[in-house]
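Hey, can you fold this one?
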Amino acid sequence: MEGGAATDVLQVLVQNLIDLSKKEISQIRGLDKDAAKLAGSLDMIKNFLNDAETRNITNEAVKCWLKKLENEAFDADNVLDELNYHILSKKIKASKPMKAKVLSRFSSPFNSIARPRKMAVRIQEINENLESIKKEATDLGLVARLAIEPTLVDAAIFETDSFTLDPIFIGRDDIASEIVGMLTNSITTDDGSVSILAIVGMGGLGKTTLTRKVFNCLKNETRFGLHIWVHVSPNFDPIILFKKILKEVSQQNKQLPSNQVESSSKQDILSKPDQVEIESKQDILSELQKALKDKTYLLILDDVWNQDVSKWEGFMNSLLGVSGCVKGNAIIVTTRNMEVASIVNTIHIHELKGLSEEECWSIIRAKAFGKKDVPSEFEAIGRKIARRCQGLPLAANIVGGVLHDKSEDKWRSIEEKWLSPKEGGDNITKILRLSFDNLSPPFLKKCFAYCAMFPKGSEIMKQELIEKIFNYKGKRFPLWTEKMSVRDALQGSWVLLNNLMSLRLWYCRKSEEIPMLGHLPNLKSLGLIGLRNLKCINSSFYGMVNKDTRIVFPALERLELKDMPKLEEWAEIEISDGSEVKLFPRLRYLEIKWCEQLMSVPSHVSSSCLESLTIGKIGVECLPADWLLSNSETLSYLRIEGCLNLREISDRCGEEESEGRSFPITSLPNFPRLTTLTIEDVPELSLETVNAMRRLQIDGYKHIDP
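Sure. Predicted structure:
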């Protein structure tokens, strides 16, 4: 993992460990001091990470320190998982009937003593290792500092303008002409007062350069009375924007012939050229209304980050108000975020794609050699470097400048190792880092940082990349999860995650719903773990079921539902036309644990190949017999434990006046492959003795028939 991204991943993990060490370990007698020490060490480690996050980490010793911390953090995570299981087990046993308590005590007399002692030794070892890691951090010069809210990047660093020359403009001429034509057509045919067009693309793709080309083309055609360029930056403040617009309009009005400006308006402008000193929004808009009177305008809002609909609507309503009834105005918005573009009510959204390798090479060649011929040996290396630019004109421009007048050895070095910070690598990083730092919501940084766990230069398969959604803190998952598709920023298209094979939603503690997943054709493993605010797995979980969809979760082989204390219902699949639909036809492994409030589960699954079924600490009173009946030929492992309310296994679970059959285990069909049957702490379930088991454990019951 690279240094900067490593700190983001580890901060999530360390914070979780702090929370667990304070809440969980302290509940076990004899471990409270160890818990306090562990929490204190982790707090200090977190402060060191805050310092590491502010640095561009290139020091190999610091990277090694981060790796040590990563290993120790994951060891601690595993220990706390075991402790969490132990605590949950204690809570279940505390609520058992007295007879069951006595039986369970006799079944494992040393369990309750041995496990805390073993955990204590492991926690002490972790504390010792963390002490060593803390000392090493100090030796490396890391400073323990409290986390601060991320500050906005100084806008002046990336301030854009309409005057900068772009001598190398490659690969965008057709797009510029298309946008000019689209705006020209809109302002001449549309009855609206303003036409808005958005240009969307990741940092470094050349949005500003393209927009500047369009701006100057339209300026030369004199289709607008005023041409206004405003750099917005992450801070979308309407007052600041109106001040900038007023200042530009005032300066342009001063340059107009006297017959194009009303005498009163001109007098105001000449007497007070800096109208923007006024702080009142009312006064600013009043002056802007005078300055815009009877004029059309082209307004560029470059680098917009705002996703607040109400802010945008407030800004536009004010602008339209001061524009009066004048028609034929145009606004171009540039942004890195498609959600920003979606709220600005555009006539068109242009998703900017990356340049081709040939176009990147053309930029590098022009920067490095100008109009000179390129030696063949340099061209061969240069084309490989162009491939590394990944379609980004920014990268091609910077690397081309670095390669100017450099030796063949230097070209080879950059082709192999890319740019050092001094050579311009930092400039690219800063542009891209801005997108990273301003990910909204901010905790998406942690998801992005997950990519850093893959080796540098490796090809990341989609199913690996989205394999785990960890610690997502929203109540609802992002929009892309609705259809399980992600946006390819370079190609400007949506890519379905049809090759996704494994997915874990892991400790997304505030989530109130889960995505639509049943339609994924290759999903083989699914884990819903630690969704502590989830109350219902509703029918949308299965996806759109219609005449074209007759198999739901067609490839799923493994399903885990764990640690969801508020989950009350796992809904049936809804079938509108009453036809047969196959649900989980290839399911082999099913585990449902630590969902104490879960009172209903689907009555029918289509699997006939289930090999392992584990039901633990859930609230159901009735387990659907179909789960066992349809898998009698394949089931080899069955474990039911800690289900204090479970009374029966029936084919009519959930019906108020059940006329169905209730089965004791032995009255079900033979299970020729069943080798392990464990029934533990299920005091209300009637059982008969079972023969022909390699491993049989029945423990803690009221009703055991001889």
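The first helix runs from residue 3 to 23. Let me know if you want another pass with a different chain boundary.
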